[in-house]
Amino acid sequence: xxxxxxxxxxxxxxxxxxxxxxxxxxxxxxxxxxxxxxxxxxxxxxxxxxxxxxxxxxxxxxxxxxxxxxxxxxxxxxxxxxxxxxxxxxxxxxxxxxxxxxxxxxxxxxxxxxxxxxxxxxxxxxxxxxxxxxxxxxxxxxxxxxxxxxxxxxxxxxxxxxxxxxxxxxxxxxxxxxxxxxxxxxxxxxxxxxxxxxxxxxxxxxxxxxxxxxxxxxxxxxxxxxxxxxxxxxxxxxxxxxxxxxxxxxxxxxxxxxxxxxxxxxxxxxxxxxx
Length: 275
Known about the structure:
Layout: H1 3-9, E1 11-14, H2 18-41, H3 48-71, H4 85-97, H5 108-132, H6 139-167, H7 174-177, E2 179-182, H8 193-212, E3 220-222, E4 229-231, H9 244-274
Antiparallel strand pairs: 1-2, 3-4
Helix pairs in contact: 2-3, 2-8, 3-5, 3-8, 5-6
């Protein structure tokens, strides 16, 4: 069955639930914000710590997306992303030469891009937390993961544009209204608005607590519901160099040492006087 026949037999069906759509656009906004702050403004900008906060928010969003992939609607399920490498190659060949099959939910290309983005965001968030705690040897992993993520996002956008041109279907709009051309029975019954509200509340609360705990003087924040302090200032390179926050702590310790030595000397003098 050709794509043209499928299109003629298809009608607008609700495919993407509201949590997926909200997640998609919030993640897009957070990624753009973090990229602009990090790559355009640079690590010396006063806004640089906020790119780390956005990264922590994206990390939580990925965790929630994985959870929704277990309990969500059919096209949001992680199982809908399961395509073999052969299916991916066949789809890409059809996309280039013509005749690629249509999918109500994710096609193989979008599925692999989604998996890659979820994994890379987790690596970026995890390595960012490690950097914020002064762990050495993770900066290169963090940066390479960021560039890999941007590359995957770029390929995903190219795929969306190619699909729109080839099939005359602006599928980007489906992430706004949730509907795509699909066969009867492929749609979902409800958009799950309450789940979307709960998602917004969790992500919004997480972001609010991170920003509220942020101290511009030390460029640090505290992970919500923990005592873990993260220094979000610029991180220097590996070879004998330390995180800016770690260096600040070292300086503070160095300042306290003379005071401690002075107190010890005073105590010794008093002991001598008593003798």
